[in-house]
Structure prediction request, 203 residues.
Amino acid sequence: MFHETLTHAGGSSKGTAKESHALMLMRRALNRGYAVTATTGGGAEIRWGRIDRLTGNSVVRSIVLDPQLPAENLDARTRAQLAAINVGDARHVVTADRRYIDAGGTEIPTGETARLRARRLVAVDSKGRVRLTLVARLALLALDHTQVGGGTDGLAMCSCGFTVSAPAGEAADETLRFHRQAMTARFIESLPATYAAAIADTH
Ligand SMILES: [Zn+2]
Prediction:
């Protein structure tokens, strides 16, 4: 579940968005050519410009999706576990005395399995199949593309290795911002129909 904040001419309005609705909003935004950026908390920011009919000025509108339970402190071990689950075919195994996730042969211990579920980083369906939540996937994406360094020296670097140099630091930062938007767009476009279906199936 996400908090949804829509900024419009009259101010802003708040609501909540289910996972499926959040995905729909991001897809629709891409179709309209809006900028979508994943956040490290596992949310997304959608921004677009439009011309104000009264003043003729261009104004920025936005929809910000904040997870009700943000993804925080994703350490290397948690990220590795989420990556293993995301490969596919992960199952929630329930025996007489244990409950754990089997991620393609990698066993995630009971306590950590419980924590991943409590933190809403994974979702388990009625057949025991495990998937990453949209929050987890957006957070991992954003962590893969966080800016390191940059600023006034005209050089900006992304944690994925992408580097921009520009005569002015601001321009380099802006190119990196476009890079993060492009990576978010690629992620949303590459989500398989099965994932969207699994999200739609989650209650
Ligand atoms: Zn990057």
Remarks:
- The chain has six helices and 13 strands.
- The longest strand covers residues 58-67.
- Residues 2-67 form one domain.
